[in-house]
Amino acid sequence: MASVAERQHVCVIGNGAVGKLAALALSQAGLSVVLLGAAPSLKKSTDANAWDVRVFALNRVAQTLLADVKVWGALDLARVQAVSAMKVADAGQGGAATSAALDFDAYGAHVEELAWIVEDKNLNHALDSALKFAKNLTQVYGTAHAMQIKSDVAEIVLGDGTQIQAELLVGADGAQSWLRGQCDIDIDYRSYGQRAIVTNFACEKPHHGVAHQWFTEDMGIIALLPLAGNQVSLVWSAPDALATQIEQESLSDLAQRLAVFCAAALGALTPLLPEELKSFPLQFLHPHTLIAPRVALVGDAAHVVHPLAGQGMNLGFADVADLVAVLTARETYRDCGDERVLQRYRRARKEDIALMQFATDGLTRLFASDLAAVRFGRQIGMNFLNNFSLLKRKLITHAMGK
Predict the structure, then answer these.
(1) What are phi and psi of 132, to 5 degrees?
(2) Domain 8-46+122-188+284-363 bears CATH identifier 3.50.50.60
(3) Which residues, 6+ apart, have CB-to-CB distance to 186 below 8 Å?
(4) Angle of CA points 14, 281, 375, to nearest 5°
(5) E-assigned strands of 256-401?
(6) Tens of pLDDT along 209-251?
(7) CB-based contact 193:284 (threshold 8 Å)
(8) Rounded distance, CA 156 to CA 13, Å?
(9) Could you tell me the fold of the domain covering 84-118+190-282+369-400?
């Protein structure tokens, strides 16, 4: 039976973007770290320059953290698009335009950018490059098979018998987290009955760095995010039945569906080559706690929110920032898995996560309602907010993580 070096400060389980960033940031903070996850895929893209259909709208907290660990500068910045403004509209039933709208812009928020649109493969490539040069960090490929929590250490045993001992286990292993399940942490779960449809288009008119979003009562929520060049990324949170129809159609048919919403602002949409469309189910997931003895959860293991605000990855990166801050500020006589240290992390994240889950879940329910009174109320509310610059600025500031 093999073991990984000696006892580590931290073992991060899950090597998605949040797990990689957690391992990198913790190792750069002077902690010894093991990053455990699946082996990288050997599958090569048929077109290395093709645009990834999975993108993230990263806020200021995420950008700052990536810059601090020297990853932001390693991105292919020619493929990173700054968002200068966002236009939100209540599109009513079947895309019928209403007078309700919200406009957010960087100038009004007193910042240079509202967010940055970054492809998943661009982000992960930069993280992978940084991990190769990280000190105090060991990458292990495999699957956790068993866990044992002792008074002074946590132990993970892999399927091949390899043992990893660490003061703290960080669960970054996604919405179906194995580690969370081992801790018997209860969760609140609900399916939204929607799937996120993602793909990319070229647009006839320049987007000027503006993100567009349309809330509908019967077709879900449609967002077109600006990409570098005259291109946009679609994120359509569509009801399951509609999502099935869209998946069976061509991307040219999908472009025609979108024309009713975006033709005036963006002109005709043309599918990018090679054509690609992906979808994934949308759900609400709220664990009752982020911590357990010698365990802390981050990313989707800690919370899953509706993508309407584009804040899922930002919440995960904020988890990492707060966890690193708490661990580096701990008293010298406390180890990384000390209960008091973990309670500080839980308190640091509680409000931010609760507010984002409340807001995204509430908005999803609000705009799905076809009740006349609800429809009238939300239109009045949107127009009021659009003319209340101070409150609007506070909303932008919170979304940016400032």
Answers:
(1) -65, -25
(2) yes
(3) 287, 288
(4) 130
(5) 269-271, 278-287, 291-292, 295-297
(6) 999 999 888 899 999 999 999 999 999 999 999 999 999 999 9
(7) no
(8) 10
(9) D-Amino Acid Oxidase; Chain A, domain 2 (3.30.9)
